Amino acid sequence: MRHGIAGNRLGRNQTLRKATVRDLAKATLLHQRILTTKIKAKEARKLVDQLITLGKKGTLSHRRKAFSILCDHQLVSDLFAGISKRFHARQGGYTRIISLGRRRGDNSQMAYLELTEKSEVIVSKPKSDAVAKSVETAVSAEKKKPATASKPGKATPVAQDIKAKPKEKPSEKPQKTEIVPPPPPAKPQQPRKDLPPVRETHKPKPNFVTGLKKMFTKKPSGGK
User: Fold this and answer.
1) Does residue 57 sit within a domain?
2) Closest of 143, 138, 97, 144 to residue 116, by C-alpha
3) Residue 219: inside a domain, yes or no?
């Protein structure tokens, strides 16, 4: 029977799930707001509320227990000295989850996990608006700068360059270009008619077999 099994496993084994939830809780305490999936936010919310409850108690044993979870001395001291003091008038509800749209790719439901009491107001804007605002501020700063006027006695280096290099006047009459015809093609050389034709003589190469045949052939006698 399914008894004593609470929470979502997040598709991980026990050690990896514990590390994931711990990192989400640490990020929430550090940045006061994180963006994650809604399922992970629900699991990390339990641990954040537990850590703030330990910080409100403030004893040495509770410090040791918080350090065994967070494994960070600086974060534990900030939790007990600053973060937990904001919730002294609250008996619960230390965090909230704000649902957002779905993520492209796996269609997961996204959400903000944030503290209800913050040290400063956090305004989250899309990146496009932030970039547009920074561009507008840069343009307005450039417009507010006074224009540096040049003194009448001194000429700017740009003006000096212009004076040093006068404009070239275009020539009134365009120069005529003479068209040179290409040379005629060379005639092929014809053989001379007064010389006799050259006869090609073919001399057979000596062969070993023909020499043997000449040696063993009988020459006919002239008297008979």
Assistant:
1) yes
2) 97
3) no
CB atoms within 10 A of CB 10: 14
Domain contains 152:
no
93: Cβ contacts below 8 Å, ≥ 6 apart: 116
Sequence length of the chain is 224
Tell me the pTM: 0.54
In a domain, 128, yes or no: no
DSSP letter at 168 equals: P
Q: Express each pLDDT in 108-148 by its tens digit.
A: 999 999 999 988 766 665 555 655 666 567 656 665 655 55
State how far the alpha carbon of 45 is from the alpha carbons of 59, 66, 112, 121, 137, in Å. 23, 15, 11, 20, 38
Residue bearing tokens 């008979």: 224
Q: How far is residue 197 CA from its own chain's centroid?
A: 82
Phi/psi for 109 (5° steps) reads -75, 120
| CATH number, residue 104 | 3.90.1030.10
Containing domain of residue 87, as a range? 14-116
Q: Give the HSE-up count for residue 22: Cα atoms under 13 Å, Cβ half-sphere.
A: 14
Query: Token pair of 1, please?
Result: 């029977």
Nearest Cα residue to 43 out of 78, 72, 18: 18
Closest CA to 62 of 76, 74, 75: 76
The total number of structural domains that make up the chain: 1
Which uninterrupted H or E stretch holds 37?
strand 33-37
